[in-house]
Specification:
Layout (H helix, E strand, L loop, with lengths): L2 E6 L1 H4 L7 H15 L3 E8 L6 E3 L3 H16 L1 H21 L3 H5 L3 H29 L4 H4 L10 E4 L7 H14 L2 E6 L3 H4 L9 H14 L2 E4 L2 H13 L7 E3 L24 E5 L8 H13 L6 E5 L7 H9 L7 E4 L4 H10 L2 E4 L8 H8 L4 E4 L4 H5 L4 E3 L4 H11 L3 H11 L5 H11 L1
Parallel strand pairs: 1-2, 1-4, 4-5, 5-6, 6-7, 8-9, 8-11, 9-10, 11-12, 12-13
Antiparallel strand pairs: 2-3
Helix pairs in contact: 2-19, 4-6, 8-10, 12-17
Amino acid sequence: MSKTIWMDVSDLLDWSGHMTGVQRVMYEIMTCLIEDSAYEARFFKLSFNGKALVECDVTDMLARMSAQANEASTAPDDATEGRKKQIKAMVRKAYFALPTGVRQRITTEHKQKAKHVAHTALHQAKQLKHQFAQMAAKPGEQEYAKPADFRQDDTVLVVGKAWDDIRLVDLLAEGKRAVGYRYVTLVHDLIPVFQPHLFGPGLFNPYAQYLFEALTNCDRILCVSKNTEKDVQQLAAILNVPHVETAVVVLGDTPLTEIAAVRPNEVAADEPFILAVGTVEARKNHELLYQAYKLAKEQGKQLPRLIIVGSPGWLTNDFVYIAAHDPDTKDMITILRHIPDAQIRWLYEHCLLTVYPSIYEGWGLPVRESLAYGKHCITTTVASLPEAAGGHASLVSPYDSGAFLAQLLTDIPKAPQLNKAIACTYVPNEWRSTYAMVKKAL
């Protein structure tokens, strides 16, 4: 009889659009688990009322995610144009609802800000629409969902954002005490605990509780890097938790070759540019890039345009506003949000090089993705980033904009040679290799 592996898919069930780091990890491990004949793969989620862990069928979810990928690769231009029309209609409707005197005082800056708000609202509305559709897809689905019948010989695997709803963590701990199943979780990072200033208020407490429950209840903690493993053991020592068993799992970074590359309208086909991929938040340190571009202007040095791909995250509004309105940078720094995988692939394939000036990471997937596409990356000397770079990237302090500018000016002219060397020497890590590491640790 095959051993049963239960995997939590709470994050993926309601996800739509481009898969970011955690969702990509969940999706790849889940698909490998389903294909593994050595196990009986079963899946669970937190119930709608948050009071139980219930079994769920992932067939529809996998079909939806596959359809989204195909849609992004076959008709991104139509989708983009349709989205633009929707945003324009929302802004016009709001504009003409205002009194005439108010409309006359609205500036171009106000209109641009309104478009940004409408864009964000539309994206969020689409996600809510999907969530409500799932809830209403089967009448009485909340009552239909049966409790996950964990058994003593089963293994429960959690690789997603369990800290998003601490009730999930509590129920897993209660279940382990009652049933005695093997409990394995993947820790992506400990940044909210060791670097809490990089996030807004409200994250530290649930994240700390999630980590404490993991340390005290899990049979094994999987870590995405040796640096994260060191952080886990450091926290265990601080909390006086003995004998925490850990294992390192190297994440996959294979390029998106199954999706045809499509150029975003915001970038010209023959335009040289630098690429930065990652959530636009304080921890990712885009402020350093802004300062480097300001220094270049001051010194009379010319840099290619910087294309940042990422949705807004923690503590980012000031940077976004300043970069968009500073006369020195507004035409040199462009932020693209919510773009499909097909366009991300095109950007990776056509950029001069990539930059990733993060202050702290659990791993550094964008660094590895850059290398997998054969593109040189300038990243930083801290946390797991040297480990992720593996000797294939330039490393600079995340606090020295002058040094970062100097590295840009050094590497940009050599980009073709640097990229060629990476293409010849770097071997991407297959997600199947990641799964093999997970399987060994189960």
